[in-house]
Amino acid sequence: MIVIIGAGAAGLLAGISATKKNKEVVILERMAKAGRKMLITGKGRCNLTNAAEIPELIENIPGNGVFLNSALRVFSNKDICNLLENNGCPTKVERGKRIFPESDKSHDVVDTLVKIFHHQGGKIYYDTKVIKLVVEDGQIKGVSTNNGQTFLANAVILCAGGATYPTTGSDGNGAKLAENAGHTIIPLKPSLVPLESDWQYSKELQGLSLKNVKAYLLANDEKIAEDFGELLFTHFGVSGPIVLSMSNVAQQALALGKQVDLIIDLKPALDFEKLDSRIQRDFIEFSRKQIANGLVSLLPHSMIPVVLDMAYLDENKFINQITKEERFRLLKVLKHFVVPIVGTRPIAEAIVTSGGVSVKEINPKTMESKLIKGLYFAGEVMDVDGYTGGYNLQAAFSSGYVAGKSAAESIINM
To answer: N or C: which end of the chain has fewer CB within 10 A?
Structure first.
């Protein structure tokens, strides 16, 4: 028998792969439903993968993406799309090569994968938490569960996820199981996580979303990351796709005690001179208005008083009284909007976990443990993490598929 721990993206693909060659495959899932974390990805739409070529996929998995080179070639982004489409769940490609189910419903992806697994003879036991890996003489023998059961197994695939969104079942238990069995665990940290700021404008800008802005991070005034896209102001600081993509770098700099600032170019399509010309035209049009009323076509309403305050401009001052020096101060804020960063949100609020089972102790071609025969790993429980855009789910799908395939083949060859 093959026992798979976790019915998430990695676990379901491991099950589908394993049941092609072995009908005695069970998935033990601690939650009442499968794929709980998948259901909330992509704002409930499930950004299941990315259409990029394999080298680009690896580049966008900065956390040990090279380790997945073999797995991505065995089961690629095209393979997961074909698997879903051949089973009644068509997909589509959107901006940034992101791939979603055509229905825009994440449960269609989960339901399809569960259906395939069941159709191939696999079984899922829900509300079943694994509390121990049973290992004897360097060989996996099975698992023990919270309800007193012991599942004997020729192979066990650990796909229990990381430590993010614990309400979905990912609470770090997978790393604990592996550590108790003798594996090295790279400390779990939040990756793809919102950033905290102690600045005074959080309340004024809370809930404001900015699209098509350019942002970069400075650590002790040295640029360490940059991105373009959407950003969201929150009550604690900043979030949104471009913030999440740079959060790991910010976290590393903060850990070294560096001063970290997020710099936002609010008008990236215009250089300084063109933006100045644009503002001067607006100033001529609204010359008899107060400056706060003269920026309505340039900025969101809630942002105007914040920008003026940062530029040391009185919002009640009339535009025809604004000096050239004051206009330049306004320009600088628009092109160099500074948000001081003091920390990251807790790991429970991160999209992805950084850290986990050390990939040095896992065979990249089979996903089998180098320490315990018959024990395999897949997905977020490993020290592998990528950017937003479908890369993390593809990592889970590919590693899960290879782990399931390898486990089934090892039993046949026993």
So the answer is: C
- Model confidence at 114, pLDDT cuts 50, 70, 90, reads very high
Coil, strand, or helix at residue 132?
strand
Per-domain boundaries in the chain = 2-188+351-412, 194-344
pLDDT in tens, 257-303: 999 999 999 999 999 999 999 999 988 888 888 998 888 889 999 99
Is 194-344 the same fold as 2-188+351-412? no
Angstrom distance (rounded) from CA 130 to CA 283? 66
Which architecture characterizes domain 2-188+351-412 according to CATH?
3-Layer(bba) Sandwich (3.50)
- Is residue 239's pLDDT more than 60? yes
- Please choose, from the candidates 385, 414, 394, 412, the residue with its C-alpha nearest in 3D space to the C-alpha of residue 192: 385
Question: What is the CATH code of the structural domain delimited by 194-344?
Answer: 1.10.8.50
DSSP alpha helix (H) spans, 239-366:
241-255, 272-285, 304-310, 324-335
Give the 3-state secondary structure of residue 251: helix
Gyration radius of the chain over CA positions: 25
Q: What is the pLDDT of residue 40?
A: 82
CA dist 71 and 74 (Å) reads: 5
**E strand segments, 137-200:** 139-145, 150-152, 155-158, 185-191, 195-196
Q: Residues 355-394, buried b or exposed e (16+ Cβ, 10 A)?
A: bbbbbebbebebbbbeebebbbbbbbbbbbbbbbbbbbbb
Portion of the chain with pLDDT greater than 70, in percent: 97
One-letter identity of residue 396: A
Instruction: Give the span between the Cα atoms of 382 and 270, in whole angstroms.
Output: 43
